[in-house]
Design brief:
By secondary structure, this protein is mostly helical. It has 12 helices and no strands. It has helices at about 5, 10-30, 35-40, 45-50, 55-70, 75-80, 85-100, 105-115, 120, 130-140, 150-170, 175-195. The radius of gyration is 19 Å and the shape is elongated. The N and C termini lie far apart (about 55 Å). The mean pLDDT is about 90.
Length: about 200
């Protein structure tokens, strides 16, 4: 259904997409209005339906777009240069936050999507596939031997994912990214010193 939308110029796609992202982020799925999106984008309501079919399809398109865009923000080769799990987590987090700073509409939408009441609306943002993608980026098999208990490595990763989601709830239009990242860096430092074997500590 999005073929007609993708046939538009990149500039027009960006205008429509940002209008939809901002509307859903501000009002949530249920209260977001196709008419408001159309007015903000400078197009007719009929055009929105022509491009996406219905509100649910438009929302799913935005979920898929944001998920793909966030994945592309990770520089996998740069992450692989880091030989430590906690260093990789930090670098990946910096990449994600820098991308969110550059794309405030995407950042706001993702935060909004994670707190939608209907599970099916969370889509790819909180999907197991997305979690596995991030896990493969930051947690390598050789990292486990650095932990006092190797089995804790995956549990710490899962805890950090949950922590990241909680911190994500604080990211609004005027978010204190630097303050949140400073706190996150301190947490990573604390976890490393509590979970790693002494010989792997600086």
């Amino acid at each position: 259904m999005t073929e007609k939308f993708l046939a538009l110029s990149m500039e027009k796609q960006t205008i429509i997409r940002n209008a939809a992202l901002a509307c859903f982020a501000k009002h949530g799925y249920e209260k977001a209005s196709i008419n408001d999106i159309a007015v903000s984008a400078g197009i007719s309501k009929a055009s929105v339906f022509q491009y996406f079919g219905n509100k649910r399809s438009l929302y799913q398109y935005l979920l898929d777009y944001c998920t793909a865009q966030m994945k592309e923000a990770y520089d996998t080769s740069a992450l692989d240069l880091n030989t430590d799990f906690f260093d990789r987590v930090w670098k990946a987090s910096v990449m994600k936050v820098e991308n969110m700073k550059k794309n405030p509409h995407i950042a706001s939408f993702i935060v909004s999507a994670t707190v939608e009441s209907a599970p099916e609306l969370k889509g790819a943002v909180l999907s197991p596939a997305n979690t596995k993608f991030v896990e493969a980026l930051v947690l390598h098999e050789e990292d486990r031997e650095k932990f006092k208990r190797p089995e804790d490595a995956k549990l710490v990763f899962r805890m950090l994912m949950l922590l990241g989601r909680g911190m994500g709830d604080q990211l609004e239009d005027e978010a204190d990214y630097d303050g949140i990242m400073k706190e996150f860096e301190e947490i990573l430092h604390m976890l490393k010193y509590n979970f790693y074997k002494e010989e792997y500590l600086p």
